[in-house]
Specification:
- With 102 residues, the protein is mainly alpha-helical.
- It has one domain.
- It contains three helices and no strands.
- The chain has helices spanning 7-12, 18-58, 62-83.
- The longest helix is centred in the middle third of the chain and has 41 residues, at 18-58.
Length: 102
């Protein structure tokens, strides 16, 4: 996410280590936006499954209803894991990969 530097960013870039901090913060912000977007898409999928479940309930199709409920729970769990996964300075935020010692 590129943006124009304001005077504060220019001054802060003179501080040793600030550039890495700013880049990591930018990656966290992008990660947050991506996670929210994915979670919202999964929420829409869950809503569609709910509609199909309502239809199966109206038709008294218990087998279909059970399988849809299992699917809905899995989508809900995945959505929660994506949305509420911890943020932080983990290996995911590193720009370079660590070399493996053999």
């Amino acid at each position: 996410m590129d943006r124009k530097k304001n005077i504060v960013d220019k001054i802060a870039s003179l501080i040793p280590g600030y550039k890495g901090y700013a880049e990591r913060d930018g990656r966290r912000n992008c990660d947050s936006v991506l996670r929210d977007s994915i979670a919202n898409c999964l929420l829409e999928v869950e809503k569609k499954i709910d509609l199909i479940m309502f239809e199966a309930l109206s038709n008294k199709d218990k087998v279909k209803l059970r399988s849809l409920e299992i699917m809905r729970k899995k989508v809900n769990t995945l959505s929660s894991k994506i949305k509420y996964a911890p943020y932080g300075a983990t290996a995911f935020f590193r720009t370079s990969k660590l070399k493996r010692m053999s």
